[in-house]
Amino acid sequence: MAIAPLALAFLFLPLGDGGAAGFLRVLGWIFAAAVLWLWVLPGTYRLLALMVVDYFETSVDVGVVRIIGCVAVAIGGAMVYAGLFVL
């Protein structure tokens, strides 16, 4: 449900005019449609998630998954550090 606030923000915040604002508004409508799809047909999202997990289990080496996980944790830590630095 993390995309629901993004959809609301992109749709209802005053972003002005221009190409970037139009793109964000279209992205908001896409996010809103995805949230509605998740609420109406949750089984399809579950199947999609299971397909992604199955792909990573069968065709990607365990070491690659661990390296991607470590990089993701490092990027998350850097974002937290940058956020606390700004505060």
Explain what you see.
This protein is mostly helical and 87 residues long. It has 2 domains: 1-40, no CATH class; 43-87. Helices cover 86% and strands 0% of the residues. It contains 4 helices and no strands. The longest helix is centred in the C-terminal third of the chain and has 25 residues, at 62-86. The chain starts with a helix and ends with a helix.
Radius of gyration: 18 Å
Helical stretch tally: 4
Instruction: Assign the structural class, choosing from mainly alpha, mainly beta, alpha/beta, alpha+beta, or little secondary structure.
Output: mainly alpha
Shape category: flat
Q: Into which percent range does the helicity of residues fall?
A: over 70%
Oligomeric category = single chain
Distance between the termini: 27 Å
Query: Average pLDDT, to the nearest integer?
Result: 85
Low-confidence region ranges: none
The count of DSSP E runs of length 2 or more, i.e. the number of strands, is 0
Order of helices and strands: HHHH
Total individual domains? 2
Largest sheet, in brief, is: none
Share of residues in strands: under 5%
